[in-house]
Amino acid sequence: KIKLSQFITSKGFIDEELRLPDFAADLGLSTHQASYYLNQYLNQSYNDFLNFHRINEVMIMMKNKSNFNLLTIAFECGFNSASSFHRACIKFTGKSPRDLRNYIQFNIGTGNKVEKQLDL
C-alpha cells in the first residue's frame, strides 16, 4: 500500500509505456498479485487505475495552465492517443475533453471543488 502511494505521488502513471509486469515489479509484487490487489481492493482494472490517475493529472494541468492544447496535455499525462484520452475522459468524468476543459475553466474562479462535483 505504501509503495502504491509512492507510485501515485511520483506520478509513475504518466509513463505511456508502463505495462503491468513493470508496475508489479516496481511494487515488489508478481503480476498476478498486483492485478488481484487493484481488482479486489480498488475495484479497478490495471488500465482503469492508470487512466483514472491520468485523468486526475489532466484536470490539475487544465486548472494550472490557461493556454493549453488538450492533446498536448493528454500526452504529457501518459495517454498515447486522442481516442484513449477521449474514452477515459468520458468514463471518469462523464464529459468530453473539450467539455471538461470548459467546465473547469468556468468553475476555476468560483471556489467550487471540481473533482468533488465530478465524483473523482
Automatic annotation (TrEMBL):
Classification via Pfam families: HTH_18
Annotated SMART domains: HTH_ARAC
Domain HTH araC/xylS-type as annotated: residue spans: 14-103
Keywords: DNA-binding, Transcription, Transcription regulation
Domain of life, source organism: Bacteria
Gene3D superfamilies attached to this UniProt entry: Homeodomain-like
InterPro entries on file: Homeodomain-like_sf, HTH_AraC
Xref: SUPFAM superfamilies: Homeodomain-like
GO molecular function, one term: sequence-specific DNA binding
Keyword DNA-binding among UniProt keywords: yes
Protein name: DNA-binding helix-turn-helix protein
Organism: Leptospira weilii str. 2006001855
